[in-house]
Amino acid sequence: MSAETLDLETASPAEARRALRPEPVKRSVARRSSDGASLGSVALDPDTFGIEPNLAVLHQVVTAQLAAARSGTQSTKTRAEVRGGGSKPWSQKGTGRARAGSSRSPIWVGGGVALGPKPRSYAQRTPKKMVALALRSALSDRAATERVAVVDRWAYDEPSTKAAVASLAALELEGRILVVLGEDDWAADRSFANLPHVQVLLAGELNAHDILVNDWVVFTDETLPGTTIEAVEVDIAIVENADGEVVAIVETEIDVIEDADGEVLEVVETDTVIVVEEEGNEA
Question: Which of 46, 158, 161, 189 has the fewest CB atoms nearer than 10 Å to its CB?
Answer without folding.
Answer: 158
